[in-house]
Automatic annotation (TrEMBL):
Role: Component of the intraflagellar transport (IFT) complex B, which is essential for the development and maintenance of motile and sensory cilia.
Main location (coarse class): cytoplasm
Keyword line: Cell projection, Cilium, Cytoplasm, Cytoskeleton, Repeat, WD repeat
Species of the source: Apteryx owenii
Gene Ontology, cellular component aspect: axoneme; centrosome; intraciliary transport particle B
Gene Ontology annotations of biological process type: cilium assembly
Name of the protein: Intraflagellar transport protein 80 homolog
Keyword Cytoplasm recorded: yes
Subcellular location field: Cytoplasm, Cytoskeleton, Cilium axoneme; Cytoplasm, Cytoskeleton, Cilium basal body
Superkingdom of origin: Eukaryota
IFT80/172/WDR35 TPR domain ranges (all copies): 616-762
WD repeats: 102-134, 184-216
Domain IFT80 second beta-propeller as annotated: residue spans: 300-588
Lineage of origin: Eukaryota, Metazoa, Chordata, Craniata, Vertebrata
Quaternary structure and partners: Component of the IFT complex B, at least composed of IFT20, IFT22, IFT25, IFT27, IFT46, IFT52, TRAF3IP1/IFT54, IFT57, IFT74, IFT80, IFT81, and IFT88. Interacts with IFT88. Interacts with IFT57 and IFT70B.
């Protein structure tokens, strides 16, 4: 990726340009010390003067009023705030009419910013004050006062906090009085510029120490650049938070959100005092010290999937290269390309007006449809369909271009969604709520309706990243998420009222990805690269989970690596310096998943015997128990030396009735409540009581015995034996109450138990006999 720069031969402004801002994707306003506000039309390459400001107004900063207000999106901005050196800020209309001037600070007003909703304006000045104003320019409050000038200010993503500079320090101050203020030393020199992105919640800072830095919203450093030759005078995020630009003297740099640099340009601009990204994030403009306005387009973005490599070579042209046969195709578009995604055998490209869907099998005939709203901010793909997010909403389309659904939830803000906070599979869509970070909304993909009873999934702490698995049955869909403490959790997507608990399966996890063809999960936790070959093991046999993992030292990936893809058995990881590392894992677990999903148990056992790997046997054991195939489970557990479990499986196989066997399989997986419910529903009361006795759930065993008026003496006898073994006396009042006047006769109890088992056998035999009779008839038929 690089920047394609355009700079006029002669500057249009006579003095330095202090600030720039986009009204639409092709129209820009610039302000200069020559008191002129100029309008630049990029389609016609015309430059016109909007207004000549009075001679005493020297502009310092300006910011367009937000385009989306109360969910209604305007196609262009109508007015802007301009701060100036005379201590005032001015509200000016798009046509250049001065609506209002407000005395704001003693000394120059160094920055002014509207919040995301357009309900408040923050200004900072040389007098060290941070002030909040209403939309009409009325003073609401003075948020902070200090002895040094405040050079830059930014709103937090929720417009509840304000970030501002204080010499070498950065300060985040909430608007609520008495709320905790976060302050830290960020640079060794004066901080000149800051920016806070609403999508990724990351902070940029630039200073006179010639460095730029990336921080999270807790003040933890994520990236610090090498010192440049000159102070960094400007930084700016793109709207989607994927890229940022850095400006300095004769320097313009394009960087990834993690900090590493894509491109460095050395244009003849003087210092770049201000950078503004266009709304669609495809181009930027810079305010230059020598009177120029520099324009730069982002080109040569690349997308890779299997054997295809796609490059955006011009704004409206893509080059597709098949690396197997070196075939090259050129894709031409009517408008400029804004977003693209390549996955699952399809390329989805959104331009400013249309969406194109190409199949990797045929590049000549794309499906084309018009977009409802303006700029697409996110494209997510699954095997059967893809999701588009823009300012107006979320839209799920099939690869044939048919609109499938448009999910919504209260307070949804689509402009702040990214690939970490939205996840899509063939049947499910999950979205992390921006307002409450502990909540995940889950939707049926095909209908767009909330799943089950409509209640979202709620965690105890704030969630950072979510991911749905891509394969398997709809009823077994799993979601994993990383929370604020960097713990990795897994849970079932709730359907039909059955709720599975949230289970922690990893700690200090920085990045993760599901495989595209089987439910294998990979992630980097602390200093280890980990692959969970069968994450569902936690719901089958939790003790087995460590045996189903593949682990490798991750120190070669450097600090803060990111997993880019997990396709087939290849994992692509991007290091902190931007370089890509390709890792291959064993192909056998994916083959095992395939066999098990097709119920080819003999083939699965044969594969494990061929590979001779403990983790494969452990996966097979868990898969077999999950599918209730106890014969395969017995072979697999025996192969990894889990003798106690093999014995329990043999005990299950000898149980007389099918219901009893099912209940004990549930017990094996730790689902005691479901096992008991199953036994009670099928009328096996004694077995339900015995299960609770074996688990030492004495109170529940007695409760069932009393409720069903049977085997009270059995419970008391086992309880008495248990206490005698430990030389203890009975202290439980309920047991003392029922034990009064009751003689424990073990012979009687044993006879009762034998009778219960005989009854169960008889019942199982009668249930099986109609099937046997049917079988005999079908065998005899040919002789008739």
């Amino acid at each position: 990726m690089r920047l394609k720069i355009s700079l006029l031969k002669e500057p249009k402004h006579k003095e330095l340009v202090s600030c720039v801002g986009w009204t639409t994707a092709d129209e820009l306003y610039s302000c200069s010390d020559d008191h002129q506000i100029m309008k630049w039309n990029l389609l016609t390459s015309e430059t016109t003067q909007v207004v000549k400001l009075p001679d005493d107004i020297y502009p310092i900063d300006f910011h367009w009023f937000p385009r989306s207000i109360g969910g209604k999106k305007q196609s262009y901005a109508e007015s802007f705030v301009l701060t100036s050196s005379d201590g005032k800020f001015h509200l000016i209309s798009k046509s250049g009419r001065l609506e209002k001037s407000v005395e704001a600070h003693g000394g120059a007003v160094l920055a002014g910013r509207w919040n995301y909703e357009g309900t408040a304006l923050v200004t900072v000045g040389e007098d060290g004050q941070v002030k909040i104003w209403s939309k009409s320019g009325m003073l609401r409050s003075t948020l902070a006062q200090q002895g040094t000038p405040v050079y830059s200010v930014a709103w937090g993503p929720d417009s509840e906090k304000v970030l501002y500079t204080s010499g070498k320090q950065l300060i985040i101050k909430p608007l609520q009085p008495n709320a905790k203020v976060l302050q830290w030393k960020a640079h060794d020199g004066l901080i000149l510029k800051i920016d806070w992105n609403s999508v990724n919640d990351l902070i940029l800072s630039a200073g006179e120490d010639c460095k730029y830095k990336v921080w999270d919203s807790y003040g933890r450093i994520l990236y610090s650049s090498q010192p440049h030759e000159y102070p960094i005078t400007s930084v700016a995020w793109t709207m989607d938070g994927e890229l940022f630009a850095v400006g300095s003297f004769h320097t313009l740099r394009l960087c990834d959100k993690t900090g590493w640099s894509y491109a460095l340009e050395k244009p003849n601009t003087g210092s770049i005092f201000n950078i503004a990204w266009s709304i669609d994030g495809t181009q930027l403009a810079g305010a230059c010290g020598n009177g120029h306005v520099i324009f730069a387009h982002v080109v040569e973005q690349r997308w890779e999937w299997k054997n295809f490599e796609i490059t955006l070579i011009k704004r409206r042209t893509m080059e597709v290269r098949n690396v197997i046969n070196d075939a090259v195709d050129l894709l031409e578009f009517r408008d400029r390309v804004i977003k693209a995604s390549l996955n699952f055998g399809h390329l989805v490209v959104s331009t400013s007006l249309q969406c194109y869907v190409f199949s990797t099998k045929n590049w000549n005939t794309p499906t084309i449809f018009d977009l409802k709203e303006g700029t697409v901010s996110l494209i997510l793909q699954a095997e059967r369909h893809f999701l588009l997010a823009d300012g107006g909403g979320l839209y799920l389309y099939s690869y044939e271009g048919r609109l499938i659904s448009s999910p919504k939830f209260p307070g949804m803000r689509t402009d702040v969604l990214n690939a970490q906070t939205v996840s899509l599979s063939n049947d499910t869509l999950a979205i992390k709520d921006k307002a409450d970070g502990k909540v995940i909304y889950i939707f049926e993909a095909l209908s767009g309706k909330p799943l089950s009873d409509g209640r979202p999934l709620t965690h105890t702490t704030e969630i950072v990243e979510i991911a749905l698995d891509q394969k398997g049955l709809t009823s077994e869909r799993k979601i994993v998420f990383i929370d604020k403490n960097r713990d990795l959790h897994i849970t079932s997507v709730k359907r039909f009222g059955k709720e599975q608990k949230i289970v922690k399966i990893g700690t200090m996890v920085h990045t993760l990805a599901w495989n595209d063809t089987s439910n294998i999960l990979c992630g980097i936790q602390d200093t280890r690269f980990t692959v969970w070959y069968y994450p569902n093991t936690v719901y089958v046999d939790k003790d087995l989970l460590p045996k189903t993992l593949y682990e490798k030292d991750a120190s070669e990936f450097s600090k803060n690596p990111q997993i880019v893809h997990f396709v087939g058995n290849q994992i692509t990881i991007r290091r902190a310096d931007g370089s890509l590392i390709h890792l291959n894992i064993s192909p056998y677990p994916a083959i095992l998943h395939e066999y098990v999903s097709s119920s080819k148990w003999e083939d699965a056992v044969r594969l494990c015997r061929f590979v001779k790997d403990q983790s494969m046997w452990a996966c097979l054991a868990a898969m077999a128990v999950a599918s209730k195939d106890m014969a395969t489970a017995e072979i697999a557990y025996a192969s990894i030396g889990e003798i106690d479990k093999v014995q329990f499986i043999n005990f299950i196989k000898d149980l007389p009735s099918k219901e009893s066997r099912m209940a004990h399989i549930l017990l094996f997986s730790g689902n005691t409540h479901e096992a008991e419910t199953l036994l009670l529903q099928t009328g096996l009361i004694y077995q339900a009581i015995q299960v609770n006795i074996n688990l030492y759930n004495w109170d529940r065993a007695l409760e069932l015995a009393v409720k069903h008026k049977t085997h009270v003496d059995t419970v008391l006898a086992y309880r008495q034996k248990f206490l005698e073994d430990f030389s203890k006396k009975e202290t439980n009042k309920r047991f003392l109450q029922y034990a009064e006047g009751l003689e424990v006769d073990w012979n009687k109890i044993k006879a009762k138990i034998e009778m219960e088992i005989a009854k169960e056998r008889e019942r199982a035999a009668t249930a099986a006999s109609p099937a046997m009779v049917h079988e005999m008839i079908s065998i005899d038929l040919p002789d008739c």
